[in-house]
Amino acid sequence: GAGVSQSPRYKVAKRGQDVALRCDPISGHVSLFWYQQALGQGPEFLTYFQNEAQLDKSGLPSDRFFAERPEGSVSTLKIQRTQQEDSAVYLCASSSNYRDQPQHFGDGTRLSIL
Amino acid sequence: SQQGEEDPQALSIQEGENATMNCSYKTSINNLQWYRQNSGRGLVHLILIRSNEREKHSGRLRVTLDTSKKSSSLLITASRAADTASYFCATGETSGSRLTFGEGTQLTVNP
Known about the structure:
Chain A is mainly beta. Chain A is 0% helix and 48% strand.
């Protein structure tokens, strides 16, 4: 079956530009997560949705980061006025339940800010 | 912020040998999960162990959990070159559903 799909796989932007990263979760998965992974590090939590409700956004590093999931399926992570420190891999994951379930990850979007 | 610490940071072994990776964490947890990541790819779930479990097996994988020491170990038996990857432990906290990852162990299995 189809897994979690993220697009684009690679994104290069100039400092100050806005970017939008898309995540298509596994069909029927209620929970959706965004993580940021710096080179050589483990992923760090950004935000979590249950259906269309954003239940936890405590990991978003600044108010330049915004995520939405308006219909409870596809999600978009938007970064405004990008800065070099935003360069990282952004991973999306979905799961079928609130807790005690594995998360299924996409291959990520590698964002490079010049 | 990273909750877990994994050791070793890097491990190089020969095919057929066993590989053991350790993970320590700081807060109370609901479950602990192990994931694997090949270079340039997303994370693949390997195994989940709940806080009331002490040991779990899946194929060549064996995971232990010691909540009194706040530590876990992942054993891969009879390793293969295809096991070469980064391995991460992640904790699911009692207070929510986010996962908190360690910094990972880079495993290299030489043919």
